[in-house]
Amino acid sequence: MMSSSRLLIISAIISAAFLTVGSIRLFPDENSSFQDASSDFMEAPGYQNGPECSVLPKNKLLLACDPSAVHIAMTLDPAYLRGTVSAVHSILKHTSCPQNIFFHFIASGSSHGLLAETLSSVFPSLSFKVYTFDEAIVKNLISSSIRQALDSPLNYARSYLSEILSSCVRRVIYLDSDVIVVDDIKKLWKTSLTGSRTIGAPEYCHANFTKYFSERFWSDRKLSSVFDSKTPCYFNTGVMVIDLERWREGEYTRKIENWMRVQKEERIYELGSLPPFLLVFAGEIEAIDHQWNQHGLGGDNVVSSCRSLHPGPVSLIHWSGKGKPWVRLDDGKACPVDYLWAPYDLHKSQRRYLQYNQDLDIL
Fold first, then answer.
1. For residues 330 and 313, what is the distance between their CA atoms, to the nearest angstrom?
2. At 264, which helix (H) or strand (E)?
3. pLDDT tens figures, 240-277
4. What is the rounded distance in angstroms from the CA atom of residue 74 to the CA atom of residue 99?
5. Minimal CA–CA distance to 76: which of 44, 43, 123, 42?
6. Which of 1, 18, 116, 344 is deepest in the core (most CB within 10 A)?
7. What's the CA dihedral at 251, 252, 253, 254 to 10 degrees?
8. Distance, CA of 112 to CA of 165 (rounded, Å)
9. What is the pTM for the complete model shown?
10. pLDDT tens-digit profile of 285-300?
11. CA nearest 240: which of 177, 300, 183, 189?
């Protein structure tokens, strides 16, 4: 865990170092083939368990179901692979028991094999499994949103974790690909979901909750009554602790799908996969400290604007919004906070910069 003021000092130091390296595009655009980029990453350092860590099975098939392991789910999208690699790198670097983490990656069928090979080459000792997401199950339920990236079927995979992951997985942390973790992920894993709560996430009750749904929704009592007897607050679905057993028992995937069908007919929101989660879970979330999702650093969903960290401790930094740090860095248009992401970047074109940062050893 770091303070936001210390991170700002670090970003200034890294920014000066980064400018000496030069600015070039380090990752293919959306029209480039993934084949061209699959070997463009350096191998990550090997991270070992500390002496205080439990001894868990070395067999990856056994570890995949071990409730003592920390289970993390992420999507694998070729366009966001650089972000995913950096996120994994940051998690391994800052946790005390990296060998006790199992990653569950979800990819579309067309890119499954190449993505798995890339992860294996970058993280040779990483315990993980790549699952194929059948996009057909959700494609016809998706309505167009405010930003095209939000309409990707893979963006909805988080709603199907209870079905995609093996039934032996009881609990999982879901993370977006545009995050870095600067604290021990075990702390987040230990979040207690009290009562019958299924999801834990930072809540933002100061946000104007009504703006996430249309006037038509709020004026229709049949629809808006879903929040009766609740105090709903906005939460970001890019960082969630999920009890998969309770999810399966509550059939929450079906409930989310039902709201997506309503959206098809009534047009009650604009923000992709987030609003159905709010409709099902808002007001019934286990509130987690805000330090575990300093989000919004990519600007809003339309403009890639620069934003600052909020005051206070920081455990997870999240570039939700249109702007992504790897794109802004490559374009020479980086925001100050983007330099906090750069040290975890394992793209080969970053070798000189990464060596400089390792010498500083500040993150």
1. 28
2. helix 252-266
3. 999 999 999 999 999 999 999 999 999 999 888 999 99
4. 18
5. 123
6. 344
7. 60
8. 15
9. 0.89
10. 999 999 999 999 999 8
11. 189
